[in-house]
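Need tokens for this chain, all 246 residues.
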Amino acid sequence: MNLGAGLILAAGRGERLRAGVGGLPKPLVELDGITMLARQTLELSSAGAFPITAIINSETAGLISDRAINLPSELSLIVRDTTNSMETLLAGADHIGSGRFLAATVDAVLGSGELNSFASKSALALVADSASSFEGALGLVRWRGDRKPLFAQLDSEARITQLGSEPSNFVTAGVYYLPSRIFDFGDQARSAGVGALREFLALLLSEGFRFKGVFVDRVIDVDEPSDLATARNLIRSEGIRRNPYQ
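Here are the structure tokens for all 246 residues:
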């Protein structure tokens, strides 16, 4: 299935995690012997995304160079010190092309086969529901009490009607299947003072974008040191892809 390009959002500093990983930037933290950046690349590739680009900051780029960190050959890097997560997404505009693309935050660690399932369900749903004019899909997971979630409200068609802080049973999972025309709204978002990916997605909803909620079962959002053990346990229990460079 031709899903389009893949984009990894990895330019944040990951301040909450740094204390537990010796100050290392999040994309280069290893989970079971492979960096989070490499793991997400391989998962996107397995799901059918091509080409794959990651937006990283200059600190991460410098460490990759200084330590000769090996990354998958299918990954291209854009070095950009973005001011917020929305700008990280928008930095990929010139590298995506037309059509839809599969995007993931670098810290979304999904269970075995989950990203493949999300991608195929999203692509098929948008074809099947063409009469409803769905333009993209957001991965959702049941809220388990994690801090600072982005809650999603749904209608009977699993259309996302609202994103924000109002509690619901579901929160976003850090994976997205989006139309490239979202980049046309970058200037409007900046003029409106939008400074985060969650706010940008909410703005797109207000502009009439129809996003379908596609559920994933097992995903760990690695934000704090305590999340590392949970993610590693998920990886080891399911035999998720190990380091192909060892």
